[in-house]
């Protein structure tokens, strides 16, 4: 799994499964009311939500200090 920093640097749209569970609620609260897209199966059912890179990058910049702090802590603990 890519880190949030790697996702940020890729500048690609972000799948819900790409966001670590620890940060997911924070991200979804940020995205409330924003436009998103999804991947669909052949029957038209949603497989997974996809968030636009621009929105993810804005959220990341708002939370950058906390994200990078947690990343450093996790690296030390690993």
Would you kindly provide a written description of the structure presented here, covering whatever features stand out?
The chain is α+β, with helices and mostly antiparallel strands and 78 residues long. The protein has one domain (4-77). It is 55% helix and 15% strand. The protein has helices at residues 4-10, 21-31, 53-77; strands at residues 14-15, 37-40, 46-51. The protein has a 3-stranded antiparallel β-sheet. The protein starts with a helix and ends with a helix. 12% of the residues are buried.
Topology (SSEs and partners):
Blueprint: H1 4-10, E1 14-15, H2 21-31, E2 37-40, E3 46-51, H3 53-77
Antiparallel strand pairs: 1-3, 2-3
Helix content: 55-70%
Shape: globular
End-to-end distance: 15 Å
Instruction: Write the element-wise H/E pattern from the N-terminal end onward.
Output: HEHEEH
Q: What does the average pLDDT come to?
A: 93
Given as residue ranges, the uncertain stretches (5+ residues, pLDDT < 50) are none
Instruction: Please count the helical segments.
Output: 3
Total beta-strand segments:
3
Question: How many structural domains are formed by the residues?
Answer: 1
SS strand fraction: 15-25%
Whole-angstrom Rg: 13 Å
Main sheet makeup: 3 strands, antiparallel
Q: What structural category arises from helix and sheet content?
A: alpha+beta
* Order of the strands making up the biggest sheet: 1-3-2
């Amino acid at each position: 799994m890519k880190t949030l920093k790697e996702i940020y640097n890729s500048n690609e749209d972000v799948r819900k499964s790409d966001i670590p569970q620890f940060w997911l609620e924070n991200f979804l609260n940020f995205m409330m009311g924003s436009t998103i897209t999804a991947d669909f199966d052949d029957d038209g059912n949603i497989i997974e939500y996809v968030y636009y890179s621009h929105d993810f990058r804005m959220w990341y910049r708002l939370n950058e200090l906390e994200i990078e702090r947690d990343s450093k802590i996790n690296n030390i603990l690993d």
